[in-house]
Amino acid sequence: MNTHLKPISRWVAAGLIMIGAGKLTSQALASTTEAGVEIKNEAKVDYEDALGNTYQAFSNEAVVKVAQIYAATLKDDFDDAAAAGQIKYIVHELTNNGNGPEDFALSYAQNLPAGDSRGPDDIDAASNTMYWDENGTGRPDNGEAALASGSVVTIPAGQTYYYILAVEVPSSAAVGDKIGVTLTAQAHEGTGAPVANAVEDIGANNDGADDTNGDLITITNDAVINVNKTANEIKGGTESSTGIDVDGDPATDLAANIINYSIVASNTGNTAATDVHMFDGIPDGTTLIPTSLSSPGLIAADGDTVVASAANLTDETALGFDLDQDGGALENGGEAAIAGGLDLNHDGDTSDTVVPGVYAIDSSLPSGATVSMNFSVWYSPNQVEGGTSIDNQAFICANLNGGAGDTDYVDDNECGSPTKPGPIITNPTSITSENTYGGTITDTGSNGPGTSGGGDDDGTDDGVQTVDNASAGSDVFFYNLITNTGNRTDTFNLSIANGPTNPYPTGTTFKFLDATGAGPLVDTNSDSVADTGAISPSTCVAAGVPATTIDGITVACNQTLVRVVVSLPASASGVPFEAMTTATSVNDSTQTDSKIERLTSVTPPTVDISNTPFTPATMAAATNVDPVDVTDGVLDADGTPADDIATVFNDPALGTTVTAPLYIANKGGGQDSFTLSSRR
Description:
Layout: E1 2-3, E2 18-25, E3 38-48, E4 54-58, E5 62-65, E6 72-75, E7 78-82, E8 87-96, E9 102-110, E10 127-132, E11 146-147, E12 151-155, E13 160-168, E14 178-187, E15 200-201, E16 212-219, E17 225-234, H1 239-242, E18 257-267, E19 273-281, E20 287-288, E21 305-310, H2 316-319, E22 357-365, E23 370-379, E24 389-392, E25 395-399, E26 424-425, E27 429-432, E28 439-442, E29 464-471, E30 475-484, E31 490-498, E32 509-514, E33 531-535, H3 539-542, E34 548-550, E35 553-555, E36 559-567, E37 577-585, E38 592-603, E39 607-610, E40 663-666
Parallel strand pairs: 6-15, 7-16, 29-38
Antiparallel strand pairs: 1-39, 2-3, 3-4, 3-5, 6-8, 8-13, 9-12, 9-14, 10-11, 10-13, 14-16, 17-18, 18-23, 19-22, 19-25, 20-23, 21-22, 24-27, 25-26, 28-30, 30-36, 31-33, 31-37, 32-36, 34-35, 37-38, 39-40
């Protein structure tokens, strides 16, 4: 006999629990997480009681706060020439490589550091002044206040700050005199006071010690080329507005930002410089705009080479001249062969064999004269990850005493010098690529199986994840595919609202689990809201990062798959049911998207009782085994399958025990317990 009666009692095993599965999940990695962020974990345990009923239980939430990691670098020693009476501007790079903000004590003083192999220096500077080069121009600008020696500055995690030392050369300095200046940067590492040797000295390090950079200025009567580079970004462009084709697809209109570069070289020395070679690699991740080239001050009729582009700046054979003036045969050996190894495209190495770039040649740069080289590049925020530092420096090789009749390139600070080679290098410029934010939450639709438990049973990409059937009192899950459409790694907060139409019945609960159901999603960014954890930016797709497959569903590198688990009450009825799940960007809370979780039908609780064992054929909910028919007022016991009486006892003796075997089948879709009663 079967029935859809509501179960009389439900119970949870309180004795021995057999653990079937217990897994911890985490959506954050401490090694890449900012200091102070809380990493949270919650365990899910699947278990069964002695009767085989299965259950789930969730642990309390474990919280670990990420500690601060300290690391910093200082770059680098400077060695150049100057004329008497001028001010030399020297730019140093201080980088916080830790995972939290760091305080640094900055000091500067006369003389080279102790142990500097270039020492001792001869004379003191007339004055030394330090500035934070906030806008990256390589010169102190209006609004950039001087920093006193001993100042404490704070640099955010992962940021590089540029500091300018303005060294005033005494007008009384003689040719050959040497001025030394020491810059010291010491990290506090959370102690509130400078910690020695906590800042690694990278690049040229003539004293072999950390925390210090040494600057050496030699007084000369030759040409002194001071070169300055600036960068300016123009945002908001698109393929259609700029005429730039980003992806070769005429159907798209992707973003296209433009960076304008200007390199200005001035001769502040006392002699004309000749054969002034200016060259610059196109920054990694950007593309040259050929129509942007200009070179004020260069005149072809005077023997100058106006600015031109090169498909490969390292191929001197194709250029037709000795770019780095090293005096040897024309080279085609990549960055490593140019001036002893230059990172022309500023990608962090000197191993590139092909580097597009621009170059110009001034046949003669007289004392007091200035020449410029300008060009522009573009990049697309759709292809370059937000927050990327687009760095660049330009280079100059020249005959610094050519105006005095010299014809070689082997003197100090010239690129062919065997003892003190150039090139002259501009200040570094840094543009931080534009951030874009956005995300979607969608049904799996035609992506993956239609009957996998949480798959979209209607197979339609319509913003509705449809599951055809679930049992009253059971858990049913719905897959959700969250896509990061921005160009920064982002996390999406998740929320669910019942309804607004066809709401799930009172007593329904909702929970977010990971794609495999191994554990719940927790709050990874300390805002008390369950979230997806970090999702890679959309630029990973353009970079060729492959997709993965979960339960037959394709998940791209900028996507994550989650489960919305709906726990139905035993009384659930009146389908269809709907709830709305919303994903909100943590980086930009204005970026939200929603989808529907729809359950089409519910199987109510069903039980069948029989005096014979059940078989697969008789386990269907619609099959009523051993039905009792009392409508005729007669209890039949004729041995046919239509018996109303399960077991007949023929005159058992008083005091004996008789056994009537009963078989109970749970024909509902979820686990259940039943109370048995008898009537006489």
